[in-house]
């Protein structure tokens, strides 16, 4: 099995740039030079002593010293050659073998086994590394199987989305339209209860259409038109306000805003994010004149946005529940909707690599209203000011 190669290793620094073989050679050369220089110095001293015509006993000892130096030189030479052989075949060659095997694995050939027989330490190390390689391969294959299953599941979801957007919408439209025609044509023959049943049927069909559309929007996040580029959030906010202009005008809502920055995101999805949050602020208004403020501040590599209102607010114990799909805190006849709006907002923000949360501290400080905060990645050309 071949997969994408691993990133290149970090280059060595300082003395670590010198390979271990050269370290052995350097140390061996220094040791040999030191021994030879010492031997030459001793022989020169012996020659000087001989020039002084020493006693026969001293001369005999000097001869023995010369023989000992020669024997020592031969022994050290043999030992040095033996050490070179041992280091070469018992250390350097196994290290080179293990390095070559690891390079093949790092290049993408994860089926290549790692095996070094000597020395014991390198054999143990290669065994552990090979065990990690097998676990990585097993996890990778499992992830590939799961990815294939996920792709198949996504394909089925896309097929369901197509069916929901076409095959389910048409029957609902027929139910609503023909029920309304039934009331128009035979309204004079129906009593009040029958007319009420017809209104229930029409309202149910319309709510089902709205629910299907919201579910489609929720499933499309990250799949359809999900390209993320440098986007002006000010333009996205302006589009959202234009879409909500009728509701804002009817309720007398005052919307204020900071200067909006550029982020890395999808224009359509960010417009939907602003629109859903502002629409919620208008919907869940209190008796006070509605006010909504869209703020923003820099937070490291992210921009932190906020949507603050003076509405009825959200209790702290529901801070997580409100972001779950189909979760409602109020009856449908009081505040209409499908319960998908905030779940959709969180999915959009998380798809962009940010987070969305309810700021409980802001709500407690103001004693009324709700403040939602979310983060989005700043565009690369943004200033840090």
UniProtKB/TrEMBL annotation:
Domain Histidine kinase: 163-380
Residues passing through the membrane, by range: 20-46, 67-91
Residue span, HAMP domain: 89-141
EC number: 2.7.13.3
Annotated keywords: ATP-binding, Kinase, Membrane, Nucleotide-binding, Phosphoprotein, Transferase, Transmembrane, Transmembrane helix, Two-component regulatory system
Subcellular location: Cell membrane
EC class name: transferase
Catalysed reaction equations from the record: ATP + protein L-histidine = ADP + protein N-phospho-L-histidine
UniProt-listed InterPro entries: HAMP_dom (IPR003660), HATPase_C_sf (IPR036890), HATPase_dom (IPR003594), His_kinase_dom (IPR005467), HisK_dim/P_dom (IPR003661), HisK_dim/P_sf (IPR036097), Sensor_kinase/Photoreceptor (IPR052162), Sig_transdc_His_kin-like_C (IPR004358)
Gene Ontology terms for molecular function: ATP binding
Name of the protein this chain belongs to: histidine kinase
Species assigned in the record: Nonomuraea guangzhouensis
